[in-house]
Amino acid sequence: MATEGGAPAALLMDRIYRRQRHLYDATRKHYLLGRDRLIAELDPPAGGTVLEIGCGTGRNLVAAAKAYPHASLCGLDISALMLETAASGIGRAGLAERVRLARADAACFDPEVLFARPAFDRVFFSYSLSMIPEWRAAIDAALAAVAPGGRLHLVDFGRQKGLPPPFRALLYAWLRRFHVAPNAAHEQALRAAAAALGAHCACRSLYRGYSWSAIVTLPGPGA
């Protein structure tokens, strides 16, 4: 497993998920909405490559590998313990030959060093951008890892303006326990970064603002 990452953030994530990782998928499936929709929209080309940034337990990588048996998949995370859990789950699914993992900081990583690939056809964040302190740098790093003509996909917590204030307050209090910080500036920054690259950015609100998703399509080769 390749390694490239920042120690303080890695230690924090390991501390938070030392025990939670064993229950993560069972407890999060009820409120990490939109993940399966994101996977269904990836649709990588035949023989394509897919990278998940902040892959956690590997749940999404396993689902994507099963949905796209022709694709090669990679995942990076800053938590060594989460990657340990991911590797175990990927192995149980019989996908160890198709899914590669690496420990790295989402805000500063080199896909060539980690995976011997300069870029990927599809790159995605699934409820991970809101956990990254240097999230602007993570957006830039993710877009830099998308091949010409490829796409960046994202789903994360929204600002939930269409939901009752008490529900929003309770959810935000819960999320803060895990250093999750939904931020309206995420969408604005993503749109700006896409525009700077001449890319098309399509964002949408999901479930009355509970979450939001985005697809950024980069210009093709020679464009």
List the topology elements.
Elements lengths: L1 E3 L2 H14 L3 H5 L6 H8 L6 E5 L5 H9 L4 E6 L2 H13 L6 E6 L6 H5 L4 E7 L8 H10 L1 E12 L7 H12 L8 H12 L3 E7 L4 E7 L6
Parallel strand pairs: 1-4, 2-3, 2-5, 3-4, 5-6
Antiparallel strand pairs: 6-8, 7-8
Written account of the structure:
There is one protein chain. With 223 residues, this protein is α/β, with parallel strands linked by helices. The chain is built from 9 helices and 8 strands. Strands 1-4-3-2-5-6-8-7 form an 8-stranded mixed sheet, sandwiched between helices. The longest helix is centred in the first third of the chain and has 14 residues, at 7-20. The chain is globular. The chain starts with a strand and ends in a 6-residue tail after the last strand.
